[in-house]
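A.,

Following up on our hallway conversation. Structure tokens first:
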């Protein structure tokens, strides 16, 4: 049976989530009617539990939403950020059926050994270790059945959730946020696109020995199955108590792994969380999961750099021009001052030449406190429409910053940043981007 988006599967998914979403809506409506604060640990925990139990795409959306600055109240962002990709794995019966759908009746002939137990189960699929006939270890990323239908259904439910939240708080206009989440989620279902992303990052990092990227076995990969070389490594979280020198080394490599593609090619790995990295025996970074990749116009990259220097000089004219390059509209002094509060926080580690932590506090997600303050000011200001480019750029910066907090890294972020942008040329970025997207 075809696993394409179909009415029956969507209706089935709607029935699975409607009760939970109705419960979530009742909580919001009840609290609003009673004029009580929604920024409450108890209710944040309950709503997190509801979304966590749904698994699938809506769980992925919850994780994404928790790291978008100012989208959710601080307590909700904190609780949702704790949602891990721990969906229950498919049983071996389901796995065999799925593998047969992707590679045919004799799918097992492609492998010398295929582990029945999933080594990793995420919101949209799971990973099995396997051994090819030539004894090469591989990781088989297998998408759950009917995910296209589930994504379509869950995105419609997400519109409902966002409508509820908009009625509670009008400080952020979330239409563009929804569009960006929709585009990225649908991309994550396309494993052939992810294969292309792997080739792109392989090309980008070809001269960087500190990052390792899996090779794809294209002959036994499909739209919903990705067979990749298995990269041995320890979880990044295991290095939280490592010697300071090692933690700093890993943080520096992570910084370059993520920001090198952005400043040289206008491309980011859009899902930086602890689970997407591991560390090999030489302390190099293994980079996983290329479903969420964002390509930015070169002028946006220039806008990021221009805003940095404009903030450094407090040049209001250039600050406004940079925000316009980012995609913000109708920038007046009042809005500029609110946005500057958030921008100055994000740029703070790279504004001064010296060794320091990415953030003084070790608690919460990166930027939670300042995001809450900016959120309150935007609420007083009125509705703000964040550009789509801003949404995932900020989300990724927040995710990466949270990793640096976990590692308690102390680096000269200023020097790292200036090393990356010292030869910046918007025409060169455009050329690099055009070339790499053809790979």
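Then the amino acids I'd put at each of the 439 positions:
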């Amino acid at each position: 049976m075809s696993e394409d988006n179909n009415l029956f599967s969507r209706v089935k998914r709607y029935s699975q989530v409607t009760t939970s979403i109705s419960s979530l809506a009742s909580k919001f409506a009840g609290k609003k009617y009673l004029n009580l604060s929604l920024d409450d640990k108890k209710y944040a925990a309950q709503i997190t539990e509801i979304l966590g139990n749904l698994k699938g795409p809506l769980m992925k959306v919850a994780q994404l939403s928790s790291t978008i600055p100012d989208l959710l109240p601080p307590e909700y962002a904190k609780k949702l950020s704790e949602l891990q990709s721990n969906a229950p794995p498919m049983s071996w019966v389901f796995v065999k059926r799925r593998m047969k759908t992707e590679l045919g009746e004799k799918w097992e002939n492609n492998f010398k050994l295929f582990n029945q137990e999933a080594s990793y189960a995420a919101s949209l699929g799971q990973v099995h270790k396997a051994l090819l006939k030539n004894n090469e270890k591989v990781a088989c990323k297998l998408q759950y059945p009917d995910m296209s239908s589930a994504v379509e259904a869950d995105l419609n439910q997400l519109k409902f959730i966002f409508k509820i939240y908009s009625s509670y708080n009008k400080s952020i206009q979330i239409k563009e946020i929804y569009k960006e989440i929709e585009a990225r989620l649908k991309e994550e279902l396309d494993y052939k696109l992810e294969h292309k992303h792997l080739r792109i990052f392989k090309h980008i990092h070809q001269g960087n020995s500190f990052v390792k990227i899996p090779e794809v076995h294209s002959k036994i990969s499909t739209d919903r199955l990705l067979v990749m070389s298995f990269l041995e490594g320890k979880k990044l979280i295991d290095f939280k108590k490592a010697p300071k020198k090692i933690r700093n080394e890993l943080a520096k490599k992570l910084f370059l792994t993520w920001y090198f593609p952005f400043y040289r090619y206008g491309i980011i790995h859009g899902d930086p969380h602890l689970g997407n990295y591991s560390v090999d025996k030489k302390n190099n970074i293994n980079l996983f999961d290329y479903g969420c990749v964002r390509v930015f116009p070169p002028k946006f990259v220039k806008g990021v750099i221009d805003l940095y220097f404009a903030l450094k000089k407090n040049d209001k004219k250039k600050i406004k021009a940079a925000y316009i390059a980012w995609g913000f509209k109708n920038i007046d002094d009042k809005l500029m001052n609110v946005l500057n509060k958030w921008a100055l926080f994000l740029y703070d580690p790279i504004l001064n030449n010296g060794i320091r932590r990415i953030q003084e506090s070790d608690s919460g997600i990166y930027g939670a406190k300042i995001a809450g303050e900016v959120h309150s000011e935007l609420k007083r200001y009125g509705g703000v429409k964040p550009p789509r480019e801003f949404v995932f750029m900020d989300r990724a910066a927040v995710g990466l910053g949270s990793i640096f907090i976990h590692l308690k890294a102390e680096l000269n972020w200023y020097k790292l940043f200036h090393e990356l942008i010292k030869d910046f040329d918007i025409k060169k970025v455009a050329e690099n981007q055009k070339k790499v997207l053809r790979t």
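Confidence is low (pLDDT under 50) at residues 7-22, 28-39. Curious whether your intuition agrees with the design.

B.
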